[in-house]
Amino acid sequence: MLAALPYVGVLLLAIYAKLAKKLTASGTIAAIFVGFAITWGLGWIGLLTLGLFFFSSSFLSSFKQQLKEEDINEKGSTRDGMQVLANGGVAAIMSVLYGLFLSPLYAIGFFASLAAANADTWASEIGPLSKRRPIHIATCKRVDQGTSGAISIMGTCAALVGSFVIACIGLLYDVTNSFLIVIIITVSGFVGNLIDTLVGAYSQVLYRCNCCGMNTERRMHCGSKTEQIKGLKWVNNDIVNMSCTISAAIIAMIIAWFIV
Fold first, then answer.
1. Is residue 38 over pLDDT 80?
2. CB neighbourhood size of 47 (10 A)
3. pLDDT tens column, 182-231
4. What is the model's pTM?
């Protein structure tokens, strides 16, 4: 009976997120899948880590929402299935692999992938609150808040803290209970966020609205079709986020393989 409690917790968390309009129907199904996989592999610690990522992200996404530029993003703050998998899919795979093979490297990969997802989310949500417009790393010019590939001091600091917060949860788990591993996870999560920024700057598709002139990730704006001005059509924000979590997991596992 007690063994089923974490899974009940996943269901309740997913239902709450759906009722709070944080997840779409597909997002709810994906969240249950991800939550079950993580719980099976890493138990309560995995669920706690996932819950921390979800609640902190949800809080930040609604904090001072009026100051953030929503129209530039392809999707709103309600996450669909692809967004959930892009942020938590790698963590779910790492967790299942750990449950099957009990290798500490997979546990490290799990924490690193969620650290990167948390770093990216905190940077995306806190960065736009800066009074100064961010700088696009490809053009070195100031751009609108929320532009993919843009960085700010506030957003960068938020990314580092966000990665560190998730890494610290690893201290509660036996196989990652080491300050050296916390540093590895923190650095890997932060680097994953930087890779996210680079991919977003150079490869993510961007469109321009012919009506209002706004640059946006949306194919439709102001009721009309937008015009592609850069990037690859298949590289949307979900692909960028997936590159963030995958790279962080791989980097952390490689470093741990040689050092730990």
1. yes
2. 20
3. 999 999 999 999 999 999 999 999 888 888 877 778 888 887 888 888 88
4. 0.92
Q: What is the pLDDT of residue 60?
A: 82
**Whole domain around residue 145: which residue ranges?**
2-259
- What is the number of domains present in the chain? 1
Task: State the CB neighbour count (10 A cutoff) for residue 232.
Answer: 12
Calpha distance 192→177 (Å, rounded): 22
10-26: per-residue pLDDT in tens? Answer: 999 899 899 988 899 99
pLDDT at residue 75 in the model: 58
